[in-house]
Amino acid sequence: MMHEFRRAKRRKASDTILVTDAMTERVIGRIGNLSETGMLLIASEALADDALYQLRFALPDGTAAQPVDVGAHLLWRDRASAPDQVWAGFRFIAVSETQARRLRAWIEAPGSHYE
């Protein structure tokens, strides 16, 4: 039997959710999974070790006109199997309460798949 030790439930992103660096307005990758406290990013751009980022993405919940903006800390990164891609783990350090509620609702939505 496998036990989950993460503090927050992580929803697998079944749709492509692009992530933009809000400072450069460049798409830096897509979400692999998402929790209230962080995300796995499949990055297609170079990322700086132990850096802070301001990230933006739209949840596929019908409210794409209202993107989610988060401050995030890059905790780790590792080479992915695809060329020019990197797995990157981010911890959210700044999320407004309104956007945290949207994240919770999306993560807990019926039909979600978890990792």
From TrEMBL:
InterPro entries: PilZ_domain. This is PilZ domain-containing protein. It comes from the Bacteria. GO terms for molecular function: cyclic-di-GMP binding. Pfam families: PilZ (PF07238). Residues 6-108 form the PilZ domain.
